[in-house]
Amino acid sequence: MAKVDVKVVLLGQQSVGKTCLVDRYINSTFETAPKNTIGVAFAAKKVACKNGRVMSLGIWDTAGAERFEALSRMYYNGAKAAVLAFDPCNARSFEKLKFWVAEVRETQPDCRLYIAITKCDQLEETPSVAEQDAGELDSYNSSNGDAMQRQQSSTSLASATGRREVSDEDIAAYAKQLSGPRFGTPRILATSAKLGTGVRRLFQAIADDMAGLPPPAPSSPVARQTSPVRLGEFKFSDTYLNTPRTPPGVSPPGTPHARQKRPSCC
Questions:
Q1: Whole-angstrom Cα distance, residue 118 to residue 246?
Q2: Is 15 exposed, middle or buried (0-12, 13-18, 19+ CB in 10 A)?
Q3: pLDDT value at position 233?
Q4: Cα-flanking dihedrals φ and ψ of residue 87, to 5°?
Q5: DSSP state of 239
Q6: Highest CATH level, class, for 6-211
């Protein structure tokens, strides 16, 4: 497995398009009939960040089917970012996010959350609550010659299959509920794996945010203390080990007892 700087987990109900997001981001491809993920899938990609750092993202695509929920919990450990994916034309997938959030926060309370609105090509217009990046589609046109044609036909597609069930107000209110003291309100990003819009922006946002974080604090109070040990030395300190003083006339523990002098005969 490739060494990664940031572990990212994709969470969401089955068929919301998590695997399609990863395929589009990693391979610049889109499967019209993708197979459901069984267990978990892994991918990694290096990302150049705004501050000049290069971050390696490890992306874990978890299965959304209920029978795999217990298995998915195994992959939360060490996650620094979680993408909460839902289909705006499926209210149940939006409600299911509450389950995933509870799961992540139970095991990884410091994991940063991102809300990904998927399948936005089925909507008549991009959700106004999401971050906007109008120029992103152009980066995919060179490898996807019919991208603009699909974008122009998205309105007719929306009239057939895009009955929206989750409003901008619902999304904004839920994001506000998830606000925390460290990261604030989760970022909301609209995506379409089919058109390629918003996908790169999603993972770029994660990489930029993670690259800007300060180094993690030591995991234990002992590690934050000034250590008395230097290179080439090894000694104890009262900071780490406290022992009672040895009373006068008593040999220290672990040393041979001195032979006592017998009193002379009278």
A1: 71
A2: middle
A3: 30
A4: -95, 120
A5: T
A6: alpha beta
Contact in structure between 156 and 227 (CB atoms under 8 Å)? no
- Chain centroid to Cα 181, Å, comes to 17
Question: What is the distance between the alpha carbons of residues 20 and 35, in angstroms, rounded to a whole number?
Answer: 10
Q: Report residue 80 as tokens.
A: 């620094």
Residue 49 backbone zone (phi > 0: left; psi -120 to 50: alpha; other: beta): beta
As a whole number of angstroms, the distance between CA 239 and CA 127 comes to: 57
Closest CA to 174 of 103, 114, 122: 114
Q: What is the DSSP secondary structure assignment for residue 230, as one 8-state letter?
A: -
Residue where the block lists tokens 């795999």 = 68
Instruction: Check residue 9 and give its pLDDT.
Output: 94
pLDDT value at position 265?
Answer: 57
Residues of the chain short of pLDDT 50, as ranges, are: 134-160, 219-248, 250, 252, 255, 258
Full-model pTM: 0.70
Token pair 């990693």 is found at 26
Residue 219: the pLDDT is: 46
CB half-sphere exposure, 175, CA atoms < 13 A:
23
Q: Where are the domains of the chain?
A: 6-211
Q: CA-CA distance, 212 to 208, in Å (whole number)?
A: 6
Q: Which residues are CB-neighbours of 229 under 8 A, at least 6 positions away? A: 235
pLDDT value at residue 68: 56
> Which amino acid makes up residue 119?
K
DSSP-derived pairing of the beta strands 81-86 and 112-117:
parallel
Report d(CA 173, CA 106) in Å as an integer.
Answer: 22
